[in-house]
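Human: I hope this is not a bother. Would you mind checking the protein record under this note? Thank you for your patience.
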Amino acid sequence: MNDHFSVLLLNARPAAGKSEIIDYLRNVDASERIRRFHIGKMREIDDFPMLWTWFEEDAILEELGYKRLHTDSAGYFKHNGLWNLLIRRICLEYDKLLIDTPELHADTTVIIEFSRGSEHGGYTEAYQHLSEAVLAHAAVMYVDVSYEESLRKNRARFNPDKPDSILEHGLSDQKLERLYRYSDWENVMKSDSAYIPVGPRRLPYAVFDNGDDVTTRGGETLGKRLEAVLARLWKSYV
């Protein structure tokens, strides 16, 4: 066991603060980041750029007179299996990192970021599609906000000039309600206060309460809360 997480799954509703946490960690000195947060050099895998590519490709296909492959004209997936495809793609990207750098985890934490709502299977379904390679190294930090807070921040962050931006993309109110109003997170965590059962494995997890939007304020207030949550997670991880 090194002094840092090998893989950190960062889950939450949209606009809950995941990207703000990553941005904060990237700006912490490397030695302090390991000491306080158990996060090494950072590599991020996020399914949003993959999803956005599908939207762009479908728009091009429609312009060319062909059928859309992934989404309907309203921007919803044609079937829920595509959410599982995104998880498999995440795992494929992780495999490629390991192929390129076999000793990746000697100094690096891979942060895997995604959101899932009950409407498309939730985390119960998503975790079942994580590869053995990811599960063998992963811990989970869930950033907890209410649906109402997710809606508020989703509206606040959206920049129509940068719809493909990690930090500034957003969903319509209608899409957010349909896809993310309901979450199965409480069911996922209800059987154990520290571990999530996934097949024969038990994933360590911790919850980051962001109901007061500390991620937007940032600074040391965010740092102290993040340090406390990741310290709890580290104890379960090791």
About this structure: Residues 81-100 form the longest helix (20 residues). Residues 164-168 have pLDDT under 50 and may be disordered.
